What we know:
Blueprint: H1 2-6, E1 10-14, H2 19-30, E2 34-39, H3 42-51, E3 56-59, H4 65-79, E4 84-87, H5 103-131, E5 135-139, H6 152-172, E6 178-183, H7 190-196, H8 210-222, E7 232-234, H9 240-248
Parallel strand pairs: 1-2, 1-4, 2-3, 4-5, 5-6, 6-7
The structure holds NADP nicotinamide-adenine-dinucleotide phosphate.
Amino acid sequence: MERRKSQSSTIVITGVTRGLGRALVDEFVRLGHTVFCCARTRPEIKELAQRYPDNDFQVVDVAVDKDVQAWAAHVSERHGAPDLVLNNAAIINDRAFLWEVPDRELSDMLNINVGGVCNVVRHFVPYLVRRRRGVIVNFSSRWGQFIEERMAPYCATKWAIVALTRILAAELKPKGVVAVGLNPGVINTPMLRKYLCQNAATTAGNYPSPEEWARSAAPFILNLSMKDSGRVRRILALSPMRSVRRLATHSIKNS
Ligand SMILES: NC(=O)c1ccc[n+]([C@@H]2O[C@H](COP(=O)([O-])OP(=O)(O)OC[C@H]3O[C@@H](n4cnc5c(N)ncnc54)[C@H](OP(=O)(O)O)[C@@H]3O)[C@@H](O)[C@H]2O)c1
């Protein structure tokens, strides 16, 4: 793990067209690392590829197994096994009682938030195992530990991420590969704004920006090691000012 702190790492990130993934791209590149990234929205992926030509951006839907397989082969051909794989991509449901959640919304949620992570694990982990090194980071949430009414689909997927990360960590430990769950905290991203526009209790401006978060999150992620494997680590990204504002505000009781 010392190697990753001082040298350039190769980092795979899913879901980089906005929010936390987008901010991590800027921060990892600024720190001198190379990123291999994906998301579904073509214009944003094209813009990222032009902005960072020494890195790699592909249009991939993580829910489509064969596309993830092709993407993993492309990454390994260009750079060998990555040092870090960040399963960041996810969607959130509209607030609704479980019995009112449309079938399509539930299946999209399961296919992206759980199936997408499994697809990435299926096609990237063999490269890490072969090299007997590497770290998989699966983004969970406080909602991987607690519950929120009318958010059953999203909560269920984040609980699932915790379970599958713990199992994966046990399976990978003898092979020298690390699997960690990550609770990023509550950050002012499009996902948070989508949730909050349906919940008048608080406003997104009370929470750190993705750029503030990434300043703390990138070094934190680069330092994850075998001692973290199987655990859900929490990123504390709040600047003192934000912390005071956050404490003074009725805190969102979830995420
Ligand atoms: N923000 C928070 O406060 C918070 C709190 C707890 C946990 N989290 C977790 O942190 C992660 C990032 O959240 P965020 O707030 O940054 O979300 P966000 O703003 O909605 O961004 C999500 C990213 O995922 C991509 N994505 C969605 N579905 C995809 C798919 N099928 N294939 C590939 N990419 C896909 C989106 O791009 P395209 O639409 O272009 O594909 C987008 O770039 C998520 O796992 C989320 O559950 C966030």
